[in-house]
């Protein structure tokens, strides 16, 4: 026990040095597009995480919202107001602030549902790859059938069914988890397939056989020995899936089956703004939409780069 | 060949059964079908009677068998919200969705293939880079936002195209079409572009990478050496050999076009199946959800089957390999 802390102490500077000198960092800095994308994504994450402190107004605090300020155009237009950079909506809420708060919900749902999908997919993939035989065949057949359908359709179906089952619960509290559940369920297959493939390779390696020989339980072998060795492709899938999950959440919210208008995500904001498009108040829908597109594009670019950087065949 | 088709058919039937099981579970266990069908003032005795007449007291496997038998005749009962047979509702909406999907696929092919050929042949030109950048942005933009941008530019600002609906529709008996009237044609332009844009970028990238491969092949060098003009080399020799994967992908994508029509139909208030399905999800109208799920699964399975068989017919190498194996 005594040598454990010194162990980590010895490792810590080594780790920093390793990162500073790694291929990954070099390839990251060499790709200017990726650096820009990472900065944009970082700005979004910070803006979302600290929305209550950064946003110039709190759009959900009724005391600070004034109906007199409703439907103001962006600040650079003749009727614009400098207090509201991107204009206001029909209730006088500042669009820039609602975008920050909306990004908070969009990114929140995105990250939690990617974690859920990854956990589900990794578990099933590990079990399928490690156990093999009938269990493997069953899980993979399930994955194949699901793969025939587009994820958005699965998410819509799960959402509809979940709302049928939990219909009596408070809509505002359950909406977040129903979304996470339906998006997570529609994206697990990719993780399961990847993890299964690598697990089948790792299963026959000597360290696993050794672990089995000294009598460690299969669950523990999968978790402690196999899992760390199959994780790196999962990281790439998770990054690309974050973009997909954010799009799916926005789409569901736009379609009116996502988060309720009282806690709008970026998709809900576009849905709200859609009604004002025809009366000339274009900024209510267009700005949240642009924010969503830029966020997704940035995450996609990082994912693309990560896929190439971690692929040994491309080195 | 026959054994291959039979095995494929068997797999297709299995997939359909699995989907039917999901649809049945939805119908039977999400909420109580009887409660959904009757009003507040129905007596318990009447409810029990309805329950018995619907066969909900039978063993579950018997109910499942009956569900499949009904599904095969496309009988999914009555919609909870409209109180009409589901098959009538879907039947009246089907032409709108199929027409939209067809036009979108056509758009994706007619624009995507030339763009792919161009970017494949002129890798370094500025126009190619522009096309590739546009396609990256096109993939990142959510479908509904593309639709909204189009409406904003062409309906609200320029007022060239209608922002919702199908325009004037001609009734041909079993089928209604908007492709024969001017207003119908104008109405389909923006929905078709919105729906087809993603497929277009996909096809463009596919044709581009295939062209890059093919153009290096020996027979292209020979064709050039024989002094054939570029146009013939590019389109007769090169493009022809890139088309097999393009046809496959387009075929497989046709199913997801129909599914993604849900979003486009919502943006443009297009009176198709997708809009019906979305209303069903919002109101937990299980019979419509179950029927839509089965229909989409059927479309997917049939398309997959056709593509598999076409592959077999088109690519002689597959046949030779199988003959050698057996």
UniProtKB/TrEMBL annotation, chain A:
Signal peptide: none annotated. It comes from the Bacteria. GO terms for biological process: transmembrane transport. SUPFAM superfamilies: MetI-like. Its main location: membrane. The chain crosses the membrane at residues 33-55, 105-130, 142-162, 174-191, 226-247, 282-306. It is a multi-pass membrane protein. CDD domains: TM_PBP2. It holds the Pfam family OppC_N. The keyword RNA-binding does not apply. Keywords: Cell membrane, Membrane, Transmembrane, Transmembrane helix, Transport. One of its GO terms (cellular component) is plasma membrane. Residues 103-303 form the ABC transmembrane type-1 domain. It is found in: Cell membrane. The keyword Ion transport does not apply. Belongs to the binding-protein-dependent transport system permease family. This is Peptide/nickel transport system permease protein.
TrEMBL record, chain B:
Keywords: Cell membrane, Membrane, Transmembrane, Transmembrane helix, Transport. InterPro entries: BPD_transp_1_N (IPR045621), MetI-like (IPR000515), MetI-like_sf (IPR035906). It is a multi-pass membrane protein. Gene3D superfamilies: MetI-like. It holds the Pfam family BPD_transp_1. It comes from the Bacteria. GO terms for cellular component: plasma membrane. The keyword RNA-binding does not apply. The chain crosses the membrane at residues 12-30, 100-118, 130-154, 174-198, 243-268, 288-314. Residues 94-311 form the ABC transmembrane type-1 domain. GO terms for biological process: transmembrane transport. Its main location: membrane. It is found in: Cell membrane. Belongs to the binding-protein-dependent transport system permease family. PANTHER family: ABC TRANSPORTER PERMEASE PROTEIN, DIPEPTIDE TRANSPORT SYSTEM PERMEASE PROTEIN DPPB-RELATED. This is Peptide/nickel transport system permease protein. It comes from Breoghania corrubedonensis.
